[in-house]
Design goal:
heterodimer, A: mainly alpha, B: 4-stranded antiparallel beta sheet, 4-stranded antiparallel beta sheet, globular
Chain lengths: 461, 417
């Protein structure tokens, strides 16, 4: 018996080793493989390297957080089917994680799988109270995005979600009002909109929607007033919550992360290092915002010729905008280029956007090289542009003197200066000065439709 | 021995399990077109992702050979392409230094027998609520075009159409002021000497197209408008004569993610009235896009008395523009669609399809191309003089992936019927 014992022991050990090894081998063989889309062909090398790292982490052996990280990376770069599968795996490993469920719900929303998206988001409301209203808001949009457009059931489900959202969730409250207005229930929307406007007086979309509601209810004067107010309210509502959620993570991965770190690195003491880093980034993949940042740093370092070259390339690759043309003009000026060329660059910018900054830059140039009449015209145009800015921010008291100065001089927008002066007077209740200003506008531009309408309206009043 | 072997072998073993299979939308892919099409790129080779906002086939110079007219919102210019006898294309810039042109309308606005061009100027190709838009008239004078500003101080202008809207014999304009957060639909009354008085028809941001047609069959031109920003709606403005219009809401979607992207008029069913074709599939609010199940194309069948029956005729992901032509020569109207936002990370997803009409407005999709991607504008017409409708489309590449690029691309119809 005692001689048999070692053999038995050896057999037992071998069996145990075989079972454990078999279990390990079968576990390895059956472990899910992270998806492998052709990332390297589609993103830059830096980002592709990050994807490889995240994939390796999920592959060996892959905890819930690893799968979540890979899923998030796929999502922010638009590989939604792959993100769906990774986040599904993360949720399988940790079904109680609000983060897993929330991200899975977002990705399914972007895939257009709205029923599955809502199913993932529903439990998050119970797991994470901070995300409760966001989840209900996205779920409501899911209901509205169903395959059965405008079905009563979908609308009711959306409304039910929105009714549970707290009163301070502006996007949710706006969507509830929107749904009511567009379901011919404007009377129900009105008190919600009144409350929202009382709390957020500078949000133009609220006035636009209330105008629509008032129109439905036959309150045309109120609708007209709200539309005019909407013209002078600067703020909007971020209703693209899904886009925002995905977009705000992109700096955590790949080249965007390197750009983010370079931006944080920037300080007057280490501009050389930042320039080197940004130049390397541009070599990996052309990003317009990096080119602009690099050009601005080059300008600060006194390397104006390099800045000119960078902005010219930017304009060729990404198209000109008023902003890039201003930057080009400033760089050319710093590089000592012909003032006529610099002026013409600013002039081109002015054609893109009537901006006080451009007018001031041009006026400064003309002061050195131009004729007095031109300076006066540019200064008047500058006042007009500043007046418009003040008007659109509902700063009427500040806009009036600016338009008055602008109307005193013959310039390309003089008719509009009179029109907006009239608008300011009208909104401030000064009827006769308003009519006078509109009439002066019509003398200069008889086909100015809005001025003619305003005179008609005030005449009737 | 066994643990040692396991220890050595285990890291080398590949994981070969699979993730749970979930239903997913792989993007729109269709069977290949039974009609052969030969692709050509009229412009120079592509080095930078192009942004062509509008294309059309039109005989600009009256020589009976149509040209392609394209708005280039990257180079800020209007350009035409002429096809020579050997089928070789040449490029002819018409006018530069216009800030992001979005649409060109060719019309004899002066009534002097030659074709002028009205250009809708966005001012900025990207979201911008400021007053950067304008309407340009390029007046044809012999071989040159003289430039006039017809309207400025507006938000971004997306479309202009010309027609006699007040019945006084001259051409007035319908205008889509797209804007961004705010916008309008206008009509501009021609008061002579290139002066137009503006009248507001609707306050709403996001109007893309304002086609003119006699929608109610009473002999005058009405205005249709597709609004696509805060609201997703189709409007009509019924012409009541003498410059008066009655506003009519033809359709609204409560899904404000639906992404209205284009609208044209056409008598699709050949029953003598004017129908509307509406594409939905815009996804520009997202940094990375994906085709949605509700994208596609709707046929608004005119059933008279301002009623329209709405039929979904396509679910092409990211559908962005439509054109109507009898591509297969069987006597009915087929539909050509382009996609801006299909699942471009996958090879083979459709960017250009045609919908074969069986004569009863039942359509079968046939895929013409998967490259170039990101097509936003399409037109049909006889490019090569063989009396068969060909196709031209324009690419707008601002969202990745930046491969399968194309600016202006033509597909010559090889149908032998």
């Amino acid at each position: 018996m005692s001689r048999l014992h070692p053999k038995l022991l050896l057999t037992v050990v071998l069996v145990i080793e075989s079972v454990v090894s078999g279990w390990a081998v079968s576990g390895k063989l059956s472990r899910p493989v992270p998806p492998r889309p052709p990332v390297a062909l589609l993103v830059d090398t830096e980002t592709a390297r990050d994807f490889r790292k995240l994939r390796a982490a999920a592959d060996t052996p892959g905890q819930s957080d690893d799968w979540l990280a890979l899923g998030q990376a796929f999502a922010v770069y638009g590989f939604f089917p792959e993100a769906d599968r990774c986040l599904g795996r993360a949720t399988q490993l940790d079904p109680q994680s609000a983060n897993n469920l929330f991200w899975w719900g977002l990705v399914l929303n972007r895939l257009g799988q709205t029923t599955r998206s809502t199913a993932q988001l529903s439990p998050v409301a119970g797991l994470d109270t901070k995300r409760r209203d966001d989840c209900r808001y996205i779920s409501a949009r899911n209901h509205l995005r169903g395959d059965r457009p405008d079905s009563v059931a979908d609308t009711k489900s959306a409304e039910a979600e929105l009714r549970q959202i707290g009163p301070n969730h502006l996007a949710g409250q706006y969507l509830l009002s929107y749904l009511l207005v567009h379901s011919d229930r404007s009377a129900e929307a009105m008190p919600i909109l009144d409350r929202l406007i009382a709390d957020h007086a500078d949000v133009h979309r609220l006035y636009q929607l209330r105008a629509r509601a008032a129109e439905h209810l036959g309150e045309f004067n109120k609708a007209h007033r709200d539309r005019e107010l909407a013209e002078r309210m600067p703020e909007t509502i971020a209703t693209d919550a899904v886009a925002d959620r995905l977009g705000d993570r992109s700096h955590e991965f790949g080249l965007d992360n390197r750009i983010f770190r370079a931006g944080r690195l920037a300080s007057p003491r280490n501009l050389d290092a930042v320039v080197k880093e940004l130049t390397e980034i541009l070599g990996i993949a052309y990003r317009p915002r990096v080119a602009r940042l690099l050009a601005s740093i080059e300008l600060r370092r006194g390397r104006a010729a390099s800045a000119v070259k960078l902005i010219e390339t930017l304009i060729r690759r990404d198209g000109a905008t008023a902003e890039t043309l201003i930057e080009l003009g400033l760089a050319r000026q710093a590089a000592g280029e012909d003032p006529a060329d610099v002026f013409s660059t600013f002039q081109r910018a002015l054609r893109y956007r009537l901006d006080p900054k451009i007018c001031r830059l041009m006026a400064r140039l003309i002061t050195k090289n131009g004729k007095p009449g031109e300076i006066e015209r540019l200064e008047a145009l500058c006042k007009h542009a500043e007046g418009l800015q003040a008007f659109r921010e509902n700063r009427l008291e500040q806009a009036v003197p600016l338009f008055k100065q602008a109307t005193a001089v013959d310039h390309q927008e003089q008719a509009d200066s009179f029109f907006f002066l009239g608008e300011c007077h009208r909104h401030q209740g000064r009827r006769q000065p308003a009519i006078d200003a509109y009439r002066r506008c019509l003398e200069l531009r008889p086909h100015h439709g809005r001025a003619a309408d305003a005179v008609d309206r005030l005449g009737q009043g | 021995m066994v643990p040692l072997a396991t220890w050595i072998v285990l890291p080398r073993l590949p994981a070969s399990g699979s993730l749970p299979q979930t239903p997913h939308n792989p993007g729109s892919i269709y069977p290949p077109s039974e009609i052969p099409f030969r692709r050509q790129s009229p412009g120079p080779s592509i080095e930078i992702p192009p942004r062509i906002s509008h294309v059309q086939i039109v005989d600009l110079d009256g020589d009976s050979k149509p040209e392609i007219l394209a708005c280039d919102a990257l180079a800020h210019r209007l350009v035409s392409y002429r096809r020579g006898n050997g089928g070789k294309w040449s490029e002819h810039p018409i006018q530069a230094r216009m800030a992001a042109p979005s649409h060109a309308t060719v019309v004899d606005i002066e009534g002097d027998g030659d074709l002028d061009i009205l250009v809708a100027i966005l001012g900025n190709a990207f979201p911008d609520d400021s007053h950067v838009g304008r309407i340009l008239l390029l007046e044809r004078n012999g071989d040159r075009y003289d430039r006039h500003v017809l309207l400025d101080g507006t938000r971004r202008i997306a479309d202009i159409q010309a027609g006699d809207l007040d019945g006084d014999g001259d051409l007035d304009l319908a205008v889509a002021e797209f804007g961004y957060a705010r916008g309008r639909v206008l009509w501009l009354e021609n008061i002579g000497q290139r002066r137009f008085r503006d009248h507001q028809l609707l306050h709403a941001p996001g109007t893309i197209n304002v086609p003119l047609a006699d929608l109610d069959g009473d002999g005058d031109l009405d205005i249709a408008a597709n609004v696509s920003q805060d609201d997703e709606e189709i409007w009509a403005f019924e012409n009541q004569g003498e410059g008066r219009f009655r506003k009519r809401l033809l359709h609204k979607w409560l899904n404000f993610d639906i992404g209205g992207s284009g609208m044209i008029t056409s008598d699709l069913d050949n029953d003598g009235d004017v129908d509307l074709l509406v594409t939905v599939g815009d996804n520009l609010e997202y940094a990375y896009t994906y085709p949605q199940p509700y994208h596609g194309c709707f046929w608004f069948e005119n059933t008279g008395d301002w009623s329209f029956a709405v039929h979904r005729i396509s679910s092409l992901g990211g559908a962005h523009a439509a054109s109507v032509a009898d591509l297969d020569g069987d006597g009915d109207n087929d539909v050509v669609l382009v996609s801006m936002f299909n699942a471009w990370y996958r090879d083979g997803t459709a960017s250009l399809v045609w919908l074969e009409n069986d004569g009863h407005q039942q359509f079968t999709h046939q895929q013409i191309a998967s490259s170039p991607t990101h097509l936003v504008t399409v037109a049909t017409g006889d490019i090569n003089g063989d009396r068969q409708p060909d196709i031209v489309a324009g690419g707008w590449h601002v969202i990745p992936p930046f491969r399968r690029l194309g600016g202006v691309t033509t597909w010559i119809n090889g149908n032998r019927k």
